[in-house]
Amino acid sequence: MAGRGAPEPMIARRSGALSGESHVPGDKSISHRSLILGAMCVGETRIAGLLEGADVLATADAMRAFGAEVTDLGEGNWSVHGVGVGGFGEPADVIDCGNSGTGARLVMGAMATTPITATLTGDASLRSRPMSRVTEPLAEFGARAVGHSGGRLPMTITGATDPVPVNYTMPVASAQVKSAILLAGLNAPGESVVVEREATRDHTERMLRGFGAVIDVDARAGGRVITLEGHAELLPQDISVPCDPSSAAFPVAAALIVEGSDVLVPNVGMNPTRTGFFATLREMGADLALENEREEGGEPVADIRARFSPELKGIEVPPERAASMIDEYPILAIVSAFAEGRTIMRGVGELRVKECDRIDAMATGLRAAGGTVREGEDWWEIEGMGPAGVPGGARVEARLDHRIAMAFLSLGLGAKEAVTVDDAAPIATSFPTFAALMTGLGAALEPVQSG
Ligand code: S3P
Questions:
Q1: Is pLDDT above 80 for 222?
Q2: What predicted TM-score, i.e. pTM, was given to this entire model?
Q3: What SS3 class is residue 170?
Q4: Is 362 helix (H, G, I), strand (E, B) or coil?
Q5: Rg of the chain over CA atoms, in angstroms?
Q6: Residue 34 CB–ligand 1 contact under 6 Å
Q7: Cα 35 vs. chain centroid, distance in angstroms?
Q8: Is the dihedral of CA 440, 59, 229, 167 positive or negative?
Q9: Torsions phi, psi for 331 (to 5 deg)
């Protein structure tokens, strides 16, 4: 699994114009949910365009461990023969979720109201991440969890024998927590209610409705009240996974900062709970166009065209936008370094508990590359250096974080001097084709010998 073998350093050099079509892989969030919901139906769910990244493959293995039959049919097509809501069997061994917080937290939710015991673990990054944000609401259903100190993995969870429905107001804006509660609610009696103060990505709600669950979403004052009827019977579906806007963010950003670029990224998911990054880029003056906007499989999609944008301006990113672009702050920091003026990002404390502390990782790497970054617990700001961007010429640490690795490799394509990332292997968790795809557009990216 990524991050467990020898490090795979990679270098990115200042590149000529990037051009062409960039077919990014399937959406990571929807891919995890397709496998899990497929496993919670009786019958066959077919998935087209599944992200075959390490994170999602770990979830496929987890579903097999609980008794579902998960088959790779080739070319992104997968089949899941599920065991039904409440039908999970006890896994024979520890479940390894790799690098994936989404996988770990959604799996915990999916098993929390079935009377089985499972132990979950993951790589060093995942083992350092907080799990009590999920185990606390799951305890209200009657599930028990015993983990390492600080509520970390490895953790053993025993699902409730007689689950009770919950009414839970989330203290953090997290789609993973919300989704874990909804998945647990499927096998509880009565109605379970989740209240989120800020709207987070709503793929679980949309997909649950598609799978036949009775779910009501009441939007109020920025947040949402979600009510799910328990003891649900899910019906297998045919799912077509749109391309991941969080992966599209990298070729889009690279096109904005590399002189002369013109890149098209087709078929990107445009769910409004995911598009804050593109709205922010537009406010900064990016040359960005949405073409061919349409709806596919219950999700809005569009083709994104991005062109070199030498007149980017630093802005203040509204904190209420954070949830809709939470995974895009690392690459936004890179784009900000190529803008005139300061970019300020507030209300982003969650970045400190992602695959690594993303504010610290980005600030450290940007400073090493000649940039200026100021930070507080839940805010940071980048001093733009204009279209020339930061000088580069640094070796930076990816810290087992795919998005940190891709952000700094994107920086290297536009910086004056090359940027080396100490380990590009984690990129395989979400975007295994990143290097090939970027090279195909004209990016000067290549592996370097370790050491
Ligand atoms: C995800 C939710 C977000 C995001 C992650 C995927 C999901 O995490 O950062 O990459 O699929 O639900 P949080 O729920 O911790 O915000």
A1: no
A2: 0.98
A3: coil
A4: helix
A5: 21
A6: no
A7: 16
A8: negative
A9: -75, -30
User: Tokens standing for 283?
Assistant: 């406010």
How far apart are the two ends of the chain, measured CA to CA in Å? 21
pLDDT tens sequence across 136-174: 999 999 999 999 999 999 999 999 999 999 999 999 999
Distance, in Å, from the CA atom of 1 to the CA atom of 348, rounded to the nearest integer, reads: 29
Pinpoint the alpha helices (H) of 158-227.
175-185, 203-210
Whether 175 is in the pocket of ligand 1, judged by its Cβ within 6 Å, is yes
Residue (of 253, 244, 263) closest to 304 by Cα position: 263
Evaluate whether 206 touches 29 at the Cβ level (below 8 Å).
no
Residue 133 beta carbon below 6 angstroms from any ligand 1 atom: no
Q: Which two tokens stand for residue 375?
A: 């930070």
Distance CA(362)–CA(371), nearest Å, equals: 10
**How far apart are the C-alpha atoms of 190 and 186, rounded to whole Å?**
9
- Two structure tokens written together for 124: 């060093």
Active site positions, annotated = 327
Q: How far apart are CA 219 and CA 134, in angstroms?
A: 23
Closest residue (by CA) to atom 11 of ligand 1? Answer: 29
